Amino acid sequence: MIQLYFLSILCNGLSGYILFNDNDREVIEFSRLSVKSPTFHLILGILSAVIGILKLLSPSVEGIPILGDLIPSAAGIVAGIMLIFGIHRKDFSGKSESPNSLDAVGTGLMRYRKPIGLVLLGSALIHFLFPQALFL
Fold first, then answer.
1. If residue 134 lies in a helix (H) or strand (E), which one and from where to where?
2. Which class for 126: exposed (0-12), middle (13-18), buried (19 or more C-beta within 10 A)?
3. Residue 13 CA to chain centroid, in angstroms?
4. pTM over 0.85
């Protein structure tokens, strides 16, 4: 479906931008919706993960269904997990008395946020430029 193809590019690009750009200066800001907002991160994380799963189930081109959409859909799922864990780390990790396993997983994942953000941006760009590629 062409709609999932477009949404995958959009969510991977925005997620990559958010994960790669961690300075305090906001480049993208809408009327009341900011890219640094935890609500925006949560919504984008959920959308990225859901679109990644749906993209695995319905490929955008004919042929071998899983290969052409494997990297963009896996990148979307990872982006969703990273954004949701980032929200959890910022909002809830300081309020608990003892560290739990979810905090350890979130800390381990967030250590690689810049390389994963760069891979997401690259995946979105390549997926946009070469829609019919077999191995993407």
1. none
2. middle
3. 8
4. no
- 63 φψ region: left (φ > 0), alpha (ψ -120 to 50), beta (else): left
Give residue for tokens 């941006």: 121
Q: What is the pLDDT of residue 19?
A: 87
Per-residue tokens: 90: 């910022």
Closest CA to 15 of 78, 60, 70: 78
Q: What is the mean pLDDT of the chain?
A: 76
Q: Are 26 and 36 in contact (CB under 8 A)?
A: yes
Q: Where are the domains of the chain?
A: 2-129
- Name residue 34's beta-bridge partners: 29
SS3 assignment, position 96: coil
Contact 67, 118 (CB under 8 A): no
Distances (CA, A) of 53 to 25, 36, 93, 103: 32, 25, 28, 25
Cβ-based neighbours of 51, under 8 Å, separated by 6 or more: 4, 7, 8, 11, 73, 76
For the chain, the first-to-last Cα distance in angstroms comes to 17
